[in-house]
């Protein structure tokens, strides 16, 4: 048999990686404050993903901000889970994952830094690990968390730098009950309720420390009025949407008008007596 035909047959039988796909995206934003300075910010991100011959998927992302600050990650995912390394990873990701009762006091914003994260799911058990830099001096933090689902009851455990938590969460229709305990603190039990009846949406939560939060929202013909109580103050806000235009205002005298122009956005904001016009173009 012709050697060229044999070589082609062998090559066809071998697994071949899919061609990598790269995408380029970014934005340019200009803000002008009445009587103040003009601020221009931009960012560009190059991302790529490729399915390898062994079935795993490799990803990479590099972002460059206007100030010259670069951030990038590289990841590998497969049956074993997902591993991500680089800058801009959340070193609290493990603890966030296992802290199902939200008793460890993490902020809602990811604490980003140089490091690595891992997530995986194994027969109902979900785990997350993270390690990364937490300040400019190079200090690092390690966090870990795991959750397990027992027919709707979610049990979670988390640990970060000597602080740990154990908790659970279960939903009874519109009512969700969570209970958790953090190292050296009392247990916290919270009941949360959320329901929508026609144009009315009601949410409320209370815990065993008598902390109460509630909100009521009513929507009709593009107008939404919301009253929210955070345990101390009540804030009333309203928004109106007509086509691509959305106008919002609240009881703190903050007013914003935003216009969606497709790949561009124009907004005018009035806050604390200052008016700011912002124009953003994305690609």
Describe it:
It is a single chain. This protein has 283 residues and is mostly beta strands. Helix content is 6%, strand content 65%. It is built from two helices and 20 strands. The chain has helices at residues 3-13, 93-98, and strands at 21-33, 38-51, 57-65, 70-78, 81-90, 112-122, 125-133, 140-150, 153-160, 163-172, 175-182, 188-197, 200-207, 212-220, 223-229, 234-242, 245-250, 255-260, 264-271, 274-282. It has a 20-stranded antiparallel barrel. A hairpin with a 4-residue loop joins strand 13 and strand 14 (212-220). It is globular and about 50 Å long. It starts with a helix and ends with a strand.
List keywords for this structure.
mainly beta; 20-stranded antiparallel barrel; 283 residues; 2 helices; single chain; 20 strands; 6% helix; disordered N terminus
The 3D shape can be described as globular
Bin the helical content: under 10%
Largest β-sheet summary: 20 strands, antiparallel, barrel
Low-confidence stretches: 1-18
Question: How many whole angstroms does the radius of gyration measure?
Answer: 25 Å
- H/E series: HEEEEEHEEEEEEEEEEEEEEE
| Average pLDDT, all residues | 88
Number of helices: 2
Strand content: over 45%
Secondary-structure class: mainly beta
Q: How many runs of DSSP E, i.e. beta strands?
A: 20
Q: How far apart, in Å, are the first and last alpha carbons?
A: 54 Å
């Amino acid at each position: 048999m012709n050697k060229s035909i044999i070589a082609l047959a062998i090559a066809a039988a071998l697994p071949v990686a899919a061609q990598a796909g790269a995408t380029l995206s970014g934005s340019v934003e200009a803000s002008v404050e009445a009587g103040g300075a003009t601020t221009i910010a931009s960012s560009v991100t190059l991302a790529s993903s490729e399915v390898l011959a062994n079935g795993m998927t490799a990803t990479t992302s590099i972002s460059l901000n206007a100030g010259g600050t670069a951030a990038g990650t590289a990841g590998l995912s497969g049956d074993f889970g997902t591993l991500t390394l680089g800058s801009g990873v959340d070193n609290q990701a493990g603890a966030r994952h296992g802290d199902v009762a939200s008793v460890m006091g993490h902020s809602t914003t990811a604490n980003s830094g140089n490091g690595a994260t891992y997530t995986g799911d194994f027969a109902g058990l979900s785990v997350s690990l993270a390690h990364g830099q937490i300040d400019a001096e190079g200090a690092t933090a390690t966090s870990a968390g795991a959750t397990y689902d027992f027919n709707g009851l979610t049990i979670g455990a988390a640990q970060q730098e000597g602080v740990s938590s154990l908790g659970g969460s279960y939903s009874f229709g519109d009512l969700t009950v969570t209970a958790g305990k953090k190292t050296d603190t009392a247990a916290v039990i919270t009941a949360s309720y959320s329901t929508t009846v026609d144009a009315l949406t009601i949410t409320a939560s209370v815990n065993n420390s008598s902390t109460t939060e509630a909100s009521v929202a009513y929507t009709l013909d593009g107008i939404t009025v919301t009253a929210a109580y955070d345990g101390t103050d009540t804030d009333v806000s309203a928004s109106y949407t007509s086509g691509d235009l959305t106008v919002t205002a609240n009881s703190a005298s903050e007013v914003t008008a935003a216009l969606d122009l497709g790949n561009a956005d124009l907004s005018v904001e009035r806050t604390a007596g200052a008016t700011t016009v912002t124009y953003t173009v994305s690609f």
